[in-house]
Design goal:
The protein has helices at residues 2-28, 34-39, 45-54, 61-73, 86-121, 126-140, 143-157, 172-206, 209-216, 221-251, 253-258, 264-273, 277-305, 308-312. The protein has 316 residues and is mostly helical. It folds into 2 domains: 10-73, no CATH class; 87-273, Orthogonal Bundle (MetI-like fold), CATH 1.10.3720. α9 runs antiparallel to α10 (221-251). The longest helix is centred in the N-terminal third of the chain and has 36 residues, at 86-121. The radius of gyration is 24 Å and the shape is globular.
């Protein structure tokens, strides 16, 4: 187990290193002059030259990268166009999106996995057709439309929930009231994806030889489904959850905009609109790191669900 974890951590570090290079070069490839963006309305050549010197923009690209990654390893991602710490700005905004993503994933898992199991076990029956159709509809509904409809119904008409904004988690009940609708908007699509994936994986497992053997031994259907078919089916679903969690962290832009949540996704849009190169660079690096960490976690969960993966060293 120890060697398996070390291999996966080593691979994750290599991916993270390559990602940092791509992030750095990608930001440098953006059109425009970073010095002009940092200088704002001041276009004096002397001022722009001083900005390039202060931010190391007048040095060769390899030296710029070494300087940036060295500071990043110490938690310093530089300063944005307003002179504020990029790391501090991200630390303030990221937990908001992490909370929203976690609630959405929790909701998606609690709904999607049971629905997928029931649909597979009762294949070809009314419950199967109903859940499959509902999942297809949920996948087809745009997030912005569902969010607006929920605001109109539950905030404007019924006055049950607030229309938007964010309340600190230090006030848990009020925080949950504000985060419930955004979590439902994101969690609905995830639940539909998980339900379809769970159904497909369960049908494959239920038709496998080891399941037929378990039934031949006289085990109850509950035992066959939960102790044999479900564990192997969760490997595929775990992959989907990991990928969706990474996507939610970096892609909850529309939902945050609809519900006026000043989180990581909204910060990403604002940094691009303001052409804040240092902030864009830090945001993309953090998002890439999030994907790497989530995938590392998925690999470790694989090894728990299927111990043979630890021996082969592969999740395929």
């Amino acid at each position: 187990m120890g060697s398996f974890v070390l291999r996966k951590v080593g691979a994750a570090l290599i991916v993270l290193f390559l990602s940092s290079i791509l992030v750095f070069l990608g930001v440098r490839a953006l059109p425009g002059d970073p010095a002009i963006a940092l200088g704002g309305e001041n276009r004096d050549p002397a001022v722009l030259a001083q900005i390039r010197h202060d931010y190391g923009l007048d040095k060769p690209v390899p030296i710029q990268y070494a300087h940036w990654i060295g500071h990043a390893l110490r938690g310093d991602l530089g300063t944005d166009s307003r002179g504020l710490s990029v790391a501090h700005t991200i630390v303030v905004k990221l937990p908001i999106t992490l909370e929203l993503a976690s609630l959405s994933v929790l909701l998606g898992v609690l709904i999607g996995i049971p629905v997928g199991i029931i649909s597979a076990v009762r294949r070809g029956k009314l419950s199967d057709y109903t859940s499959t159709t509902t999942a297809l509809v949920a996948l087809s509904v745009p997030h912005f439309w569902l969010g607006l409809m929920m605001i109109i119904v539950f905030a404007v008409n019924l006055h049950w929930l607030p229309a938007g904004d964010y309340v600190s988690i230090s006030h848990p009940l009020e925080n949950l009231r504000h985060m419930l609708m955004p979590a439902v908007v994101l969690g609905t699509g995830l639940a539909a994806v998980l339900a379809r994936q769970m159904r497909s994986a369960m049908l494959e497992s239920l038709n496998a030889d080891y399941v037929r053997t378990a039934r031949a031994k006289g085990l109850s259907e509950w035992s066959v489904v939960c102790k044999h078919a479900l564990r192997n089916s969760l490997i595929t679903v775990t992959t989907v959850i990991g990928l969706q969690l990474g996507a939610l962290i970096s892609g909850a832009v529309v939902t945050e905009a609809i519900f006026s949540i000043a989180g990581f996704g909204r910060l990403t849009v604002e940094s691009i609109q303001q052409r804040d190169y240092a902030l864009i660079q830090g945001i993309v690096l953090v998002a890439a790191s999030g994907y790497v960490i989530v995938n590392l976690g998925v690999d470790l969960v694989y090894s728990f669900l299927n111990p043979r993966i630890r021996v082969s060293g592969s999740s395929t």
